[in-house]
Design a protein that fits this description.
alpha/beta; about 325 residues; Metal_Hydrolase; TIM Barrel; Adenine deaminase; 8 strands; 17 helices; eight-stranded parallel β-sheet; globular
Length: about 325
Amino acid sequence: MNRLELIQAMPKAELHVHIEGTFEPELMFAIAQRNEIAIPYQSVEEVRQAYNFHNLQSFLDIYYAGANVLIHEQDFYDLAWAYFEKCAEDNVVHTEMFFDPQTHTDRGIAFETVLNGLQRACDDAAEKLGITSHLIMCFLRHLSEAAAFETLEQALPYKDQIIGVGLDSSEVGHPPSKFEYVFAKAREAGFLIVAHAGEEGPAEYVWEALDLLKVNRIDHGVRSEEDPALMQRLIAEKMPLTVCPLSNLKLCVVDDMQQHNIRRLLQQGVHVTVNSDDPSYFGGYMNDNFIAIAEALDLSNDELKQLAINSFEASFISEADKANWISKIKVLV
């Protein structure tokens, strides 16, 4: 089969997606109207025009504005369910979704309101679509470590519904070391650990995520290539990088997709995976990201299959489930 057919046929796991970043303008308008909340845009097209970012912060500004319309458990359910429908279209059979409780609790929304809505969608996706999922709670790094500790305390009663803890939001000026103690507490509580590092921030942030936060995965990590010693370590430890190509292009981490380093990283033996990050804002879900790099970097079918295999190997599902999905990829020709 050709590349496009293979991309559609391959089962895939998504390991780096912010559920608040899947908020399509149409749904944002519908929920805003339902909740009688004013938003600073007059039409869906006006929102799409605003999706012209020049860096991470300019994206985050509109991202947080959109989140303001999410009030009730049903809102969070609807948000997640819309994403699961996209997963079904792209043959994403497992997803590990980030959610940002502080974005909502700081607005007076109860932690359990957020979690219950997302969990209900996860349960329905498993039953109705055959898509499995995990939830990963992220701390906002532009806030204080003290605020992260408060959020961790809120999460502890729901630990059986949250598999891991992550770190996201504005990277520059907020190194992983800022959150060393709260991540130690999260590890002690039994959470798996991930962290955004090496997207806009330097390779040094990846070192900190490895050594101080003791992560199980690095989110982004594309600037690791700037440090040969770091590259050797990532390869030796088979440390996964959850790479988001269209996000990197939209946020000007790369100026042209042909400059993206995901193929070089793959060829050097880095455990890279493909993900959509904030797909409604960055112009594409999982298959869009695969198609973009396949065309820009002339990826072979074997390379595409390896990226899909990596996604399951790097996931937090059981070894038996990993082997099952990987076997389904390997037989595709």
